[in-house]
Design a protein that fits this description.
- The chain is mainly alpha-helical and 258 residues long.
- Helices cover 81% and strands 0% of the residues.
- It has 14 helices and no strands.
- The protein has helices spanning 2-11, 19-29, 34-46, 50-60, 70-84, 89-104, 109-119, 123-139, 143-159, 163-186, 189-197, 199-212, 214-231, 235-257.
- The protein is globular.
- 36% of the residues are buried.
Amino acid sequence: MWTAANVCVRSKPKVECPLGAWVERLIKLDSENAQAWMLRSSQLSSEGKTTAALEALENAGRVSDSKVYFADTVALSERALAAVSDYAFVERAGTAFGVGARAGLPSFSRATTMCREASETSAQWAQACERYGVQGETLGESELEVSVAQTIQKIVREAVGDQRGADQIQLRMDARRDVRIGQDAEFTLLSMMFLLSDPASFSSYLNDIRVNGELTALQLFNATLEQRLSDQPDLVCTALDALVSEWDKRSALLEQEL
């Protein structure tokens, strides 16, 4: 339901879809997810239902979880490709991450716009938006989710005239960005090769995203890979041989089809 609702949001007004019904269904299935309630709030706000939108947003700040189903979308996409195609695992895994980024991650533009405009005129809205932001920053699954949550907190502080508070949030944003840049730098082409060629590493990484969030999962993956390569220097050659073998098989199949 999460993917369907987000695709619906992105497709409107070109494509008609029952967004309200789908979001209601999502809430019933995952009522403890702050992102589901934010999706509900922004949907109601766009329909002019301000009171109901505020109630949904307040629920987003009370629940115990915050996720955008990124890891689940990637895992399900890989399994779906395995069921309907003859793609090698490396192809399925790589494609699955692309699907997760496109279909699993929502557009937060309506949420940020709603909180910016409403917080300038209503203390109740400002408080609800800020609580949602705290939930997203603390419990968020993806880095996009955490970044947006921090941005919304900063927007609220600026809207209520608290520039010092906004500056403190900016410091947290900068510190997290620096950590993320460092981890991204460590995640080399070699890291990607291991992640996409080893089903165990792939599954472990996705599970770490679910449990600990994307940034911590990346830190754990980088540290684990460094230790594995230290303990098994020949591991790189073994992984490369496996990849070359898979690509050779794929090339042979393509040649047969041609």
